[in-house]
UniProtKB/TrEMBL annotation:
UniProt-listed SUPFAM superfamilies: Duplicated hybrid motif
InterPro entries referenced in this protein's UniProt entry, alphabetically: Cell_wall_metabolism_enzyme, Dup_hybrid_motif, M23ase_b-sheet_dom
Segments passing through the bilayer: 20-41
Family annotation (PANTHER family): L-ALA--D-GLU ENDOPEPTIDASE, PEPTIDASE-RELATED
Keyword terms: Membrane, Signal, Transmembrane, Transmembrane helix
Residue span(s) of domain M23ase beta-sheet core: 82-181
Entry keyword Membrane: yes
GO molecular function (one): metalloendopeptidase activity
This protein's name: Peptidase M23
Record has Oxidoreductase as a keyword: no
Lineage of source species: Bacteria, Bacillati, Actinomycetota, Actinomycetes, Micromonosporales
Length: 211
């Protein structure tokens, strides 16, 4: 035996659906606010970024047409580039540690192997205040994991040629929010601001242990 009027059941189901829909929309809006609102806040002061390579080492940095404005490639002036340490430019939290695009097949044993796509093995570090750094074309899986806190100068990987890379090097970026900006090292701008010509600089790293 059925009790109650069919219309009352329909109204009850409608109210339940509206309640669930309202809860779902509120959840989506709350999640969006968590992501969007911090990006609307003004950036914090620029961290004292250091070069992502060893203390006292002089490296060639540069760019070329089509590379991307503000992007910097690092090449060592001494020693074999394969496997040289890549260091965190400043303290922060690892937000990405993995593969960007595809790896390809360029290795120390097969340096002319097939190129991959994108950045290959890479790391992204959040330094707070809407500042982050990115490190691409690493030789192998990064030495750090997502969510890990790293110190300035801590090794995060090794130089390789994974992804869309023609030779072993480190592709490096500094970002403020969603925008790439000119790289600064040890409180000074690097001078690489555009990619309408190929040019290089030589800089010495001050990414040294504290004290």
């Amino acid at each position: 035996m059925t009790t109650g009027h069919p219309r009352s059941h329909r109204r009850s189901r409608t109210r339940s659906l509206r309640l669930l829909l309202g809860v779902g929309v509120a959840g989506v809006l709350a999640a969006a606010a968590v992501f969007v609102v911090p990006q609307l806040l003004p950036p914090g002061p620029r961290p004292l970024f250091q070069m992502p390579v060893g203390c006292g080492e002089t490296w060639q940095i540069g760019t070329y047409p089509g590379h991307g404005e503000y992007d910097v490639d690092f090449f060592p002036l001494d020693g074999d580039p394969w496997g040289q340490p890549v260091l965190a430019s400043a303290a922060g939290t690892v937000t990405v540690s993995g593969i960007n695009g595809s790896l390809g097949g360029r290795t120390p044993e097969n340096p002319d192997g097939p190129r991959g796509r994108g950045g290959g093995y890479w790391v992204k570090i959040d330094h707070g205040g809407k500042w982050e750094t990115q490190y691409l074309h690493l030789l192998e899986p990064p030495l750090v994991a997502e969510g890990q806190r790293v110190a300035q100068g801590e090794q995060i990987g090794r130089i390789g040629s994974t992804g869309n890379s023609g030779a072993p090097h480190l592709h490096y970026e500094q970002r403020q929010g969603w925008q790439k900006v000119q790289t600064w090292f040890d409180g000074q701008p690097s001078g690489i601001t555009h990619d309408d010509a190929e040019y290089t600089l030589r800089l010495t790293s001050n990414n040294c242990p504290a004290g």
